[in-house]
Amino acid sequence: MLLQIDKDHGRFRQIVRGRIRKDLRKFLTRGELVGREGKHLVSIPVPGIDTPHFRYGDNNDAGVGSGDGKSGDKLGQDGEGIGPGGTEEGRHILEVDISLDELADILGEELELPRIEPKGRHNLTSEKDRYSSIRQSGPESLRHFKRTFRRALRRYIMTGAYDPQNPSIIFERSDKVYRSWKTIKNPQSNAVIVYMMDVSGSMGAEQKEIVRLKAFWIDAWLRRNYDGIESRYIVHDVRAAEVDRETFYHLREDGGTRISSAYRLARELIERDYPGAEWNVYLFHFSDGDNSSESDSRECCKLLKEHLLPQINEFGYCQVASAYGSGNFINVIHEHLAREPKVVTARVNSKDDIYDGIKAFFAQGR
Predict the structure, then answer these.
(1) What residues contact 46, with CB distance under 8 A and at least 6 apart?
(2) Contact 137/175 with Cβ under 8 angstroms?
(3) What is the pLDDT of residues 230-262, one digit of tens each?
(4) CA–CA separation, 229 vs 145, rounded Å?
(5) Residues 24 and 161 placed together within one structural domain of the fold
(6) Please, are residues 285 and 343 in contact by the beta-carbon 8 Å criterion?
(7) Mean pLDDT of the chain
(8) Angle CA(32)–CA(206)–CA(241) in degrees, nearest 5?
Protein backbone atom coordinates (compact mmCIF):
# COMPACT_ATOMS: atom_id res chain seq x y z
CA MET A 1 0.00 0.00 0.00
CA LEU A 2 2.74 2.45 0.99
CA LEU A 3 4.70 1.50 -2.11
CA GLN A 4 1.69 2.30 -4.30
CA ILE A 5 1.22 5.67 -2.54
CA ASP A 6 4.87 6.49 -3.17
CA LYS A 7 4.46 5.61 -6.83
CA ASP A 8 1.34 7.77 -7.11
CA HIS A 9 3.06 10.69 -5.38
CA GLY A 10 6.08 10.36 -7.67
CA ARG A 11 3.81 10.33 -10.72
CA PHE A 12 2.02 13.43 -9.44
CA ARG A 13 5.38 15.22 -9.01
CA GLN A 14 6.25 14.34 -12.57
CA ILE A 15 2.96 15.86 -13.76
CA VAL A 16 3.73 19.03 -11.80
CA ARG A 17 7.24 19.21 -13.25
CA GLY A 18 5.83 18.80 -16.73
CA ARG A 19 3.33 21.61 -16.20
CA ILE A 20 6.03 23.93 -14.85
CA ARG A 21 8.32 23.15 -17.78
CA LYS A 22 5.51 23.78 -20.23
CA ASP A 23 4.78 27.20 -18.73
CA LEU A 24 8.32 28.04 -17.62
CA ARG A 25 8.49 31.31 -19.56
CA LYS A 26 5.36 32.43 -17.72
CA PHE A 27 6.65 31.26 -14.32
CA LEU A 28 9.87 33.23 -14.80
CA THR A 29 7.82 36.44 -14.85
CA ARG A 30 5.72 35.75 -11.75
CA GLY A 31 6.81 38.15 -9.05
CA GLU A 32 4.74 36.40 -6.39
CA LEU A 33 7.09 33.40 -6.50
CA VAL A 34 9.79 35.47 -4.86
CA GLY A 35 7.39 36.47 -2.10
CA ARG A 36 6.44 32.83 -1.49
CA GLU A 37 10.02 31.71 -1.10
CA GLY A 38 10.69 29.84 2.14
CA LYS A 39 13.95 28.55 3.49
CA HIS A 40 14.20 25.76 0.95
CA LEU A 41 10.81 25.74 -0.81
CA VAL A 42 8.83 27.88 -3.22
CA SER A 43 5.03 27.72 -3.50
CA ILE A 44 4.01 27.64 -7.14
CA PRO A 45 0.40 28.06 -8.32
CA VAL A 46 -0.30 25.34 -10.88
CA PRO A 47 -3.74 25.51 -12.57
CA GLY A 48 -5.65 22.46 -13.69
CA ILE A 49 -4.17 19.79 -11.39
CA ASP A 50 -6.06 18.21 -8.50
CA THR A 51 -4.09 16.96 -5.53
CA PRO A 52 -4.33 13.16 -5.10
CA HIS A 53 -6.44 12.45 -2.01
CA PHE A 54 -8.66 9.86 -0.35
CA ARG A 55 -12.43 10.34 -0.45
CA TYR A 56 -14.27 8.82 2.49
CA GLY A 57 -17.88 7.61 2.46
CA ASP A 58 -20.22 4.77 3.31
CA ASN A 59 -21.12 3.88 -0.30
CA ASN A 60 -24.72 4.96 0.36
CA ASP A 61 -26.11 7.33 -2.27
CA ALA A 62 -29.03 8.33 -0.06
CA GLY A 63 -28.90 11.24 2.39
CA VAL A 64 -28.41 14.97 2.23
CA GLY A 65 -25.21 16.25 3.80
CA SER A 66 -24.75 14.31 7.03
CA GLY A 67 -28.47 13.59 7.62
CA ASP A 68 -31.10 11.28 6.18
CA GLY A 69 -32.83 12.07 2.95
CA LYS A 70 -34.58 10.62 -0.02
CA SER A 71 -34.90 11.30 -3.68
CA GLY A 72 -36.74 14.60 -4.38
CA ASP A 73 -35.77 16.38 -1.15
CA LYS A 74 -34.77 20.03 -1.51
CA LEU A 75 -31.16 20.89 -0.88
CA GLY A 76 -30.19 24.01 1.06
CA GLN A 77 -32.43 26.68 2.54
CA ASP A 78 -35.69 27.97 1.13
CA GLY A 79 -35.65 31.25 -0.73
CA GLU A 80 -34.00 32.71 -3.78
CA GLY A 81 -30.28 32.98 -4.21
CA ILE A 82 -28.42 36.22 -4.63
CA GLY A 83 -27.70 36.90 -8.28
CA PRO A 84 -27.85 34.53 -11.23
CA GLY A 85 -25.99 31.23 -11.23
CA GLY A 86 -22.74 30.98 -13.14
CA THR A 87 -22.54 29.14 -16.44
CA GLU A 88 -18.81 28.33 -16.64
CA GLU A 89 -16.65 25.80 -14.88
CA GLY A 90 -14.48 26.82 -11.99
CA ARG A 91 -10.73 26.95 -12.58
CA HIS A 92 -8.79 24.84 -10.13
CA ILE A 93 -5.61 26.48 -8.84
CA LEU A 94 -3.29 24.26 -6.85
CA GLU A 95 -0.32 25.60 -4.93
CA VAL A 96 2.53 23.09 -4.95
CA ASP A 97 5.60 23.38 -2.72
CA ILE A 98 8.71 22.65 -4.75
CA SER A 99 12.31 22.82 -3.60
CA LEU A 100 14.60 25.51 -4.98
CA ASP A 101 16.95 22.77 -6.19
CA GLU A 102 14.15 21.06 -8.12
CA LEU A 103 13.06 24.40 -9.57
CA ALA A 104 16.64 25.12 -10.66
CA ASP A 105 16.87 21.66 -12.27
CA ILE A 106 13.72 22.35 -14.28
CA LEU A 107 15.18 25.70 -15.32
CA GLY A 108 18.44 24.08 -16.41
CA GLU A 109 16.71 21.28 -18.33
CA GLU A 110 14.33 23.57 -20.17
CA LEU A 111 16.98 26.17 -21.05
CA GLU A 112 19.53 23.40 -21.79
CA LEU A 113 22.03 25.01 -19.44
CA PRO A 114 25.29 23.10 -18.90
CA ARG A 115 26.32 22.43 -15.31
CA ILE A 116 28.95 24.82 -14.03
CA GLU A 117 32.44 23.48 -13.30
CA PRO A 118 33.63 25.41 -10.22
CA LYS A 119 37.25 26.51 -10.01
CA GLY A 120 39.61 27.10 -7.11
CA ARG A 121 38.80 25.60 -3.71
CA HIS A 122 35.41 24.23 -4.70
CA ASN A 123 36.12 20.87 -3.06
CA LEU A 124 37.37 22.29 0.24
CA THR A 125 35.16 21.53 3.22
CA SER A 126 35.39 22.23 6.92
CA GLU A 127 34.67 19.43 9.38
CA LYS A 128 33.15 19.47 12.85
CA ASP A 129 32.08 16.73 15.25
CA ARG A 130 28.47 16.48 16.37
CA TYR A 131 27.58 14.31 19.37
CA SER A 132 24.42 12.63 18.17
CA SER A 133 24.39 9.02 19.43
CA ILE A 134 25.35 6.63 22.23
CA ARG A 135 27.72 3.66 22.24
CA GLN A 136 28.86 1.01 24.73
CA SER A 137 32.55 1.95 24.87
CA GLY A 138 34.55 5.12 24.99
CA PRO A 139 36.73 7.34 27.16
CA GLU A 140 35.49 8.20 30.64
CA SER A 141 35.46 11.89 29.70
CA LEU A 142 32.56 11.12 27.31
CA ARG A 143 30.56 8.93 29.68
CA HIS A 144 26.86 9.84 29.61
CA PHE A 145 26.14 10.05 33.36
CA LYS A 146 22.33 10.25 33.26
CA ARG A 147 21.90 7.27 30.96
CA THR A 148 24.51 5.27 32.87
CA PHE A 149 22.74 6.00 36.14
CA ARG A 150 19.35 5.01 34.75
CA ARG A 151 20.72 1.71 33.44
CA ALA A 152 22.32 0.92 36.82
CA LEU A 153 19.16 1.88 38.72
CA ARG A 154 17.06 -0.32 36.45
CA ARG A 155 19.42 -3.24 37.12
CA TYR A 156 19.21 -2.70 40.89
CA ILE A 157 15.40 -2.61 40.82
CA MET A 158 15.06 -5.68 38.57
CA THR A 159 17.39 -7.76 40.79
CA GLY A 160 15.77 -6.55 44.03
CA ALA A 161 19.04 -5.08 45.27
CA TYR A 162 17.76 -1.49 45.50
CA ASP A 163 17.32 -0.26 49.09
CA PRO A 164 15.35 3.01 49.38
CA GLN A 165 16.76 3.52 52.86
CA ASN A 166 20.30 3.29 51.52
CA PRO A 167 20.02 4.34 47.85
CA SER A 168 23.63 3.80 46.86
CA ILE A 169 24.31 2.80 43.26
CA ILE A 170 27.54 1.20 42.12
CA PHE A 171 28.11 1.18 38.38
CA GLU A 172 29.12 -1.99 36.64
CA ARG A 173 30.84 -2.14 33.28
CA SER A 174 27.62 -3.14 31.52
CA ASP A 175 25.85 -0.01 32.85
CA LYS A 176 28.19 2.47 31.27
CA VAL A 177 27.35 4.18 27.99
CA TYR A 178 29.27 6.91 26.21
CA ARG A 179 28.47 9.78 23.92
CA SER A 180 29.39 9.16 20.30
CA TRP A 181 30.00 11.64 17.55
CA LYS A 182 29.62 11.88 13.81
CA THR A 183 31.83 14.07 11.66
CA ILE A 184 29.77 16.62 9.75
CA LYS A 185 31.26 18.08 6.58
CA ASN A 186 30.34 21.67 5.93
CA PRO A 187 31.27 23.07 2.53
CA GLN A 188 32.88 26.46 2.75
CA SER A 189 31.26 29.33 0.88
CA ASN A 190 33.09 28.90 -2.38
CA ALA A 191 31.20 31.31 -4.63
CA VAL A 192 30.02 34.88 -4.36
CA ILE A 193 27.53 36.84 -6.43
CA VAL A 194 28.06 40.59 -6.52
CA TYR A 195 24.91 42.35 -7.70
CA MET A 196 25.21 45.97 -8.85
CA MET A 197 22.29 48.20 -9.78
CA ASP A 198 21.73 51.75 -10.96
CA VAL A 199 19.29 53.41 -8.55
CA SER A 200 19.21 56.83 -10.20
CA GLY A 201 15.96 58.55 -11.11
CA SER A 202 15.64 56.81 -14.48
CA MET A 203 15.27 53.36 -12.84
CA GLY A 204 11.62 53.13 -11.76
CA ALA A 205 9.48 50.50 -10.01
CA GLU A 206 8.95 48.46 -13.19
CA GLN A 207 12.68 48.23 -13.82
CA LYS A 208 13.33 47.25 -10.19
CA GLU A 209 10.77 44.44 -10.43
CA ILE A 210 12.51 43.03 -13.52
CA VAL A 211 15.84 43.15 -11.70
CA ARG A 212 14.33 41.40 -8.67
CA LEU A 213 12.94 38.57 -10.79
CA LYS A 214 16.09 38.07 -12.83
CA ALA A 215 18.28 38.10 -9.71
CA PHE A 216 16.01 35.44 -8.13
CA TRP A 217 16.58 33.02 -11.02
CA ILE A 218 20.30 33.83 -11.22
CA ASP A 219 20.55 33.02 -7.52
CA ALA A 220 18.53 29.79 -7.87
CA TRP A 221 20.71 28.45 -10.69
CA LEU A 222 24.06 29.31 -9.09
CA ARG A 223 23.02 27.85 -5.71
CA ARG A 224 22.18 24.61 -7.50
CA ASN A 225 25.74 24.46 -8.83
CA TYR A 226 27.62 25.34 -5.64
CA ASP A 227 27.60 23.88 -2.14
CA GLY A 228 27.94 27.31 -0.54
CA ILE A 229 27.41 30.80 -1.86
CA GLU A 230 27.40 34.40 -0.65
CA SER A 231 25.64 37.44 -2.09
CA ARG A 232 26.77 41.07 -1.92
CA TYR A 233 24.81 44.10 -3.12
CA ILE A 234 26.05 47.42 -4.53
CA VAL A 235 23.86 50.37 -5.55
CA HIS A 236 25.02 53.44 -7.40
CA ASP A 237 24.02 56.74 -8.89
CA VAL A 238 27.01 59.09 -9.13
CA ARG A 239 28.40 57.35 -6.05
CA ALA A 240 28.35 53.69 -5.06
CA ALA A 241 27.66 52.00 -1.74
CA GLU A 242 27.27 48.46 -0.45
CA VAL A 243 23.82 47.77 1.03
CA ASP A 244 21.75 44.86 2.30
CA ARG A 245 19.35 42.87 0.12
CA GLU A 246 16.21 44.73 1.19
CA THR A 247 17.72 48.14 0.49
CA PHE A 248 19.07 46.94 -2.86
CA TYR A 249 15.59 46.27 -4.24
CA HIS A 250 13.80 49.27 -2.78
CA LEU A 251 16.23 52.20 -2.76
CA ARG A 252 15.67 54.92 -5.33
CA GLU A 253 17.60 58.14 -5.80
CA ASP A 254 16.95 61.09 -8.09
CA GLY A 255 20.52 61.95 -9.04
CA GLY A 256 22.64 61.23 -12.08
CA THR A 257 24.63 58.13 -12.98
CA ARG A 258 28.33 57.30 -12.88
CA ILE A 259 28.71 53.58 -13.47
CA SER A 260 32.45 53.49 -12.81
CA SER A 261 31.79 54.18 -9.12
CA ALA A 262 30.12 50.76 -8.79
CA TYR A 263 32.91 48.95 -10.65
CA ARG A 264 35.56 50.52 -8.45
CA LEU A 265 33.71 49.45 -5.32
CA ALA A 266 33.26 45.93 -6.72
CA ARG A 267 36.99 45.77 -7.41
CA GLU A 268 37.79 46.78 -3.81
CA LEU A 269 35.33 44.26 -2.40
CA ILE A 270 36.63 41.36 -4.52
CA GLU A 271 40.31 42.11 -3.92
CA ARG A 272 39.72 42.41 -0.18
CA ASP A 273 37.35 39.51 0.49
CA TYR A 274 37.26 37.15 -2.50
CA PRO A 275 40.64 36.44 -4.15
CA GLY A 276 40.03 34.95 -7.58
CA ALA A 277 42.36 31.99 -7.01
CA GLU A 278 40.15 30.71 -4.18
CA TRP A 279 36.66 31.94 -5.06
CA ASN A 280 34.21 31.61 -7.90
CA VAL A 281 33.11 35.21 -8.42
CA TYR A 282 30.06 36.33 -10.42
CA LEU A 283 29.48 39.98 -11.17
CA PHE A 284 26.06 41.15 -12.43
CA HIS A 285 25.17 44.73 -13.26
CA PHE A 286 21.62 45.99 -13.90
CA SER A 287 21.14 49.37 -15.52
CA ASP A 288 19.03 51.22 -18.08
CA GLY A 289 22.19 52.02 -20.03
CA ASP A 290 22.37 55.65 -19.02
CA ASN A 291 25.76 57.02 -17.90
CA SER A 292 27.18 60.43 -17.11
CA SER A 293 29.59 60.51 -20.05
CA GLU A 294 31.20 58.49 -22.81
CA SER A 295 34.55 58.83 -21.05
CA ASP A 296 33.14 57.20 -17.90
CA SER A 297 31.73 54.36 -19.98
CA ARG A 298 35.19 53.78 -21.46
CA GLU A 299 36.65 53.91 -17.95
CA CYS A 300 34.21 51.14 -16.96
CA CYS A 301 35.45 48.94 -19.78
CA LYS A 302 39.04 49.58 -18.71
CA LEU A 303 38.25 48.61 -15.11
CA LEU A 304 36.60 45.44 -16.30
CA LYS A 305 39.36 44.42 -18.68
CA GLU A 306 42.36 45.20 -16.48
CA HIS A 307 41.11 44.52 -12.95
CA LEU A 308 37.81 42.66 -12.74
CA LEU A 309 37.70 40.08 -15.52
CA PRO A 310 41.02 38.42 -14.55
CA GLN A 311 39.54 37.65 -11.10
CA ILE A 312 36.00 36.51 -11.89
CA ASN A 313 34.13 33.67 -13.59
CA GLU A 314 31.71 35.90 -15.43
CA PHE A 315 30.48 39.46 -15.79
CA GLY A 316 26.83 39.72 -16.80
CA TYR A 317 25.40 43.06 -17.86
CA CYS A 318 21.61 43.28 -18.02
CA GLN A 319 20.20 46.40 -19.64
CA VAL A 320 16.62 47.09 -18.60
CA ALA A 321 14.52 49.25 -20.91
CA SER A 322 13.53 52.63 -19.49
CA ALA A 323 11.77 55.61 -20.99
CA TYR A 324 14.33 57.89 -19.37
CA GLY A 325 17.61 56.06 -20.01
CA SER A 326 19.75 56.50 -23.12
CA GLY A 327 20.43 52.76 -23.43
CA ASN A 328 23.91 53.37 -24.83
CA PHE A 329 26.12 51.62 -22.28
CA ILE A 330 25.54 48.16 -23.74
CA ASN A 331 26.83 49.44 -27.09
CA VAL A 332 30.04 50.64 -25.43
CA ILE A 333 30.54 47.20 -23.88
CA HIS A 334 30.05 45.54 -27.26
CA GLU A 335 32.51 47.94 -28.84
CA HIS A 336 35.33 47.55 -26.30
CA LEU A 337 34.80 44.07 -24.83
CA ALA A 338 33.35 42.05 -27.70
CA ARG A 339 36.24 39.56 -27.64
CA GLU A 340 36.15 38.97 -23.89
CA PRO A 341 34.62 35.49 -23.29
CA LYS A 342 33.71 36.27 -19.68
CA VAL A 343 31.49 39.20 -20.67
CA VAL A 344 27.82 38.41 -21.36
CA THR A 345 25.12 40.98 -22.09
CA ALA A 346 21.33 40.80 -22.26
CA ARG A 347 18.62 43.31 -23.12
CA VAL A 348 15.43 42.98 -21.09
CA ASN A 349 12.67 45.19 -22.44
CA SER A 350 9.94 43.46 -20.44
CA LYS A 351 9.41 40.50 -18.10
CA ASP A 352 8.99 38.24 -21.13
CA ASP A 353 12.68 38.70 -21.95
CA ILE A 354 13.87 37.27 -18.60
CA TYR A 355 13.76 33.73 -20.06
CA ASP A 356 16.22 34.57 -22.86
CA GLY A 357 18.34 36.69 -20.53
CA ILE A 358 18.93 33.80 -18.11
CA LYS A 359 19.85 31.50 -20.97
CA ALA A 360 22.32 34.05 -22.33
CA PHE A 361 24.03 34.43 -18.96
CA PHE A 362 24.63 30.72 -18.32
CA ALA A 363 24.74 29.09 -21.75
CA GLN A 364 28.54 28.74 -21.55
CA GLY A 365 28.53 26.92 -18.21
CA ARG A 366 30.89 29.32 -16.44
Answers:
(1) 16, 19, 20, 93, 94, 95, 96
(2) no
(3) 899 999 999 999 999 888 887 877 778 899 999
(4) 41
(5) no
(6) no
(7) 76
(8) 100
Please list the alpha-helical segments (H only) found in 162-289.
205-225, 245-250, 260-273
CB 259 within 8 A of CB 317: no
| 199 and 156 both lie in a single domain | no
Tens of pLDDT, residues 45-59: 555 555 555 556 555
H/E run at residue 231: strand 229-236
Task: Please tell me the distance from the alpha carbon of residue 227 to that of residue 206, in angstroms, as a whole number.
Answer: 33
Total domains in the chain come to: 3
Read off the pTM.
Answer: 0.63
CA distances from 249 to 101, 230, 311, 354 (A): 24, 17, 26, 17
Q: What is the CATH number of the domain that holds 220?
A: 3.40.50.410
- Range of 270's domain? 188-362
Return phi, psi of residue 281, to 5°.
Answer: -110, 130
76, part of any domain: no
> Rounded to an integer, what distance in angstroms lies between the CA atom of residue 308 and that of residue 314?
9
- In the chain, the N- to C-terminal Cα span, in Å, equals 46
